[in-house]
UniProtKB/TrEMBL annotation:
The keyword Transferase does not apply. The lineage of its organism: Bacteria, Bacillati, Bacillota, Bacilli, Bacillales. The chain crosses the membrane at residues 21-46, 58-76, 116-134, 146-168, 180-204, 233-251. It comes from Paenibacillus glycinis. Keywords: Membrane, Transmembrane, Transmembrane helix. It comes from the Bacteria. This is ABC transporter permease.
Amino acid sequence: MNAYLSVWRLRFINGMQYRAAAYAGMATQLFFGLVFIMIFVAFYQHSTQEQPISLKDVISYTWLQQIFLAFIMLWFRDNEIFQLITGGNIAYELCRPCGIYEFWFSKLLAQRVSSAALRCFPILIVAFLLPRPYRLQLPPSLTAGLLFVVSLLLGLLVVVSISMLIYISVFWTMSPVGSTLLIAVAGEFFAGLVIPVPLMPAWLQQIANALPFRWTADFPFRVYSGQIPQAEALWGILIQLLWLAALVGFGRWSLHRALRQVVVQGG
């Protein structure tokens, strides 16, 4: 356990050094957050039907996407791991006195946390200071805020466990492009990052509910706004834990099977 904590700490410190990239990303996220909110404001102003989610909740939903983008984006990738697999240097990883799955999981987790730590607080402050209707609202209660924090952290672990499957798939495909694009595009849509899940047609919502992606972003963001009641949020957190256990278990099994078939060329 100490080895994985050390890896996490070193990766976190290393990630905190990229401040220029963080500032550029922060400006980009503020820009796109405002653009998306303007689109939703126009949509709600000209809509003749009552929507299943209020404009205030959609604005909070959108800002939370931008604030915690590093936590939820599936297209975030570590090229170093891809190069280890495709270049044959995975042999060095096999010599480490620790599990590869846990080692990579710690690295990916630290990268996301460090990236979010540099960006989230400035965006959060700006989002709270904006005039209505562009302002981010506080959660309706302290309990809702605490449930949001728990569900967001569990969602982060689910995202990392899904990302691990992308890296493991490269043992067979030898190219990260296909699996990254496929999972990232599907995951971004069904997580509610294109349009919120409540605004999807009923049949699409059923598909989203059956996949793990929704539990990484849509669920914690709607817990924050109070659109998901507290009792339902507790059940949702249990579902997150089940998905996390299933994804980690499948990932460990897949990696073990992949490593049994690894052939490292050369000497």
